[in-house]
């Protein structure tokens, strides 16, 4: 090929091509090959520099030189790819020759640890509400009368305060006995007292009540949610819970209904049912014409907002609460709540989850 003038220097394309091809073949490692690629095709490489000089040439010379340089660029790129494949194959061959497997070694015992369904469901709930912008808040298991009852608009004569429902401790604070919290709502109170609005939190955790049967235990788990802001209304609550139930139970067209109810800390209040069928002894979520209650909710009572120093004329929002153990039973077909806390390894191997079954919205909540 005849030499041509680029950027004021005579360049022999054939000679340059031979030199770069020789450098590619001489590369003894992937690092050496990468250095050749950068020196030839990088932003400051030889071929790149020549192509930048095409603008200084007349039209005919630029057309001829451009064609030659593009062909050279393609040839070198192809040579680099081929050499890279050769080096990678050589490295793999060397690895296979130097590494070996001792088939006389005994097999590793299968990992026997399992994730408890309660832990798994808490992670599922957190993943769903985190995607909606909620953060997780926590509080103490032992509470005082104000945070567990009074701040939540529960009057002194309310049945929930009585001994048959609440675990009272001998210790007192400000003349009132301490209790094992009967719900995780005190976490909402403490969060509103310690931070400024708006709020969007969930509070999963252990709660305690004097009750024990197939669907109740003295210690159980709840998750409660709170959203406080400007102009929040019942429609936001409905949309939030519908999205949660649809994703958690993995039923796209899940039927739901909101029934009027009463809770001291919300007004108006509602209980939420989901559609189900009970054919024989089998419960199916999302099918049939029956209904199943899963949670309670409502708009935060103005008295609750005043008790934490918020103006109910400026701030409003919703709250909800559900039993984690209960929704775990419904989703995974666990018949008896008491078995959750029996420490039976056979039960855990059957209903538990593998350590890597981490729930995500992208990868799927359940196994």
What key attributes describe this structure?
367 residues, alpha+beta, BirA Bifunctional Protein, domain 2, eight-stranded mixed β-sheet, three-stranded antiparallel β-sheet, 13 strands, 38% helix, disordered N terminus
Distance between the termini: 65 Å
Structural class: alpha+beta
Binned, the helix content reads: 25-40%
Q: What general outline do the C-alpha atoms trace?
A: elongated
The largest pleated sheet is described as: 8 strands, mixed
**Can you count the helices?**
11
CATH class of the largest domain: Alpha Beta
What sequence of helices (H) and strands (E) makes up the elements? EEHHHHHEEHEEHEEHEEEEHEHH
Q: Superfamily at the CATH H level of the largest domain?
A: Bira Bifunctional Protein, Domain 2
Instruction: Calculate Rg over CA atoms.
Output: 34 Å
Mean pLDDT across residues: 86
Low-confidence stretches: 1-10
What fraction strand? 15-25%
The CATH topology annotation of the largest domain reads as: BirA Bifunctional Protein, domain 2
How many separate structural domains?
Answer: 2
Tell me the CATH architecture of the largest domain: 2-Layer Sandwich
Count of DSSP strands = 13
Detailed description of the structure:
The chain has 367 residues and is of the alpha+beta class. Helix 5 (117-131) crosses helix 10. It folds into 2 domains: 4-98; 117-351, Bira Bifunctional Protein, Domain 2 (BirA Bifunctional Protein, domain 2, 2-Layer Sandwich), CATH 3.30.930.10. Strands 3, 7, 8, 9, 10, 11, 12 and 13 form an 8-stranded mixed β-sheet that branches. A 3-stranded antiparallel β-sheet has the order 4-6-5. A two-stranded antiparallel sheet has the order 1-2. The longest helix is centred in the N-terminal third of the chain and has 40 residues, at 59-98. The two termini are 65 Å apart. It has helices spanning 13-26, 30-41, 46-52, 59-98, 117-131, 145-148, 185-194, 234-248, 302-307, 324-332, 345-351; strands at residues 4-6, 9-11, 135-136, 142-143, 168-173, 176-180, 199-208, 219-229, 256-263, 266-279, 282-285, 290-300, 316-323. 38% of the residues lie in helices and 24% in strands. It is elongated, with a radius of gyration of 34 Å.
């Amino acid at each position: 090929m005849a030499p041509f003038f680029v950027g004021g220097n005579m360049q022999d394309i054939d000679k340059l091509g031979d030199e770069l091809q020789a450098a590619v073949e001489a590369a003894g490692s992937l690092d050496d090959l990468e250095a050749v690629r950068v020196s030839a095709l990088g932003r400051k490489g030889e071929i790149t520099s020549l192509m930048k000089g095409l603008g200084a040439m007349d039209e005919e010379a630029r057309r001829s030189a451009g064609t030659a340089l593009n062909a050279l660029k393609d040839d070198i790129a192809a040579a680099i790819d081929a050499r890279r494949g050769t080096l990678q194959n050589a490295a793999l061959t060397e690895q296979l020759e130097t590494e070996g497997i001792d088939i006389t070694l005994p097999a590793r015992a299968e990992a026997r640890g399992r994730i408890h369904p309660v832990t798994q469901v808490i992670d599922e709930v957190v993943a769903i509400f985190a995607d909606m912008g909620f953060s997780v808040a926590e509080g103490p298991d032992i509470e005082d009368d104000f945070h567990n009852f009074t701040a939540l608009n529960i009057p002194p004569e309310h049945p929930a305060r009585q001994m048959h429902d609440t675990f009272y401790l001998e210790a007192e604070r400000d003349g009132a006995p301490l209790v094992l919290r009967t719900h995780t709502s005190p976490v909402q109170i403490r969060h509103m007292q310690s931070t400024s609005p708006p709020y969007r939190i969930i509070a999963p955790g252990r709660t305690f009540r004097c009750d024990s049967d197939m669907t109740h235990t003295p210690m159980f788990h709840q998750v409660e949610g709170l959203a406080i802001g400007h102009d929040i209304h019942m429609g936001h609550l409905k949309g939030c819970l519908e999205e949660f139930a649809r994703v958690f139970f993995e039923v796209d067209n899940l039927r739901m209904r909101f029934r009027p109810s009463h809770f001291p800390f919300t007004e108006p209040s509602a209980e939420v049912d989901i559609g189900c069928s009970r054919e024989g002894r089998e419960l199916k979520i999302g099918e049939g014409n029956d209904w199943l209650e899963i949670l309670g909710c409502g708009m935060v009572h103005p008295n609750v907002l005043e008790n934490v120093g918020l103006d109910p004329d400026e701030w409003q929002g919703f709250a909800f609460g559900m039993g984690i153990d209960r929704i775990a039973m419904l989703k995974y077909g666990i018949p008896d709540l008491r078995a959750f806390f029996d420490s039976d390894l056979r039960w855990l191997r059957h209903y538990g989850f593998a350590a890597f079954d981490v729930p995500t919205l992208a990868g799927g909540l359940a196994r």
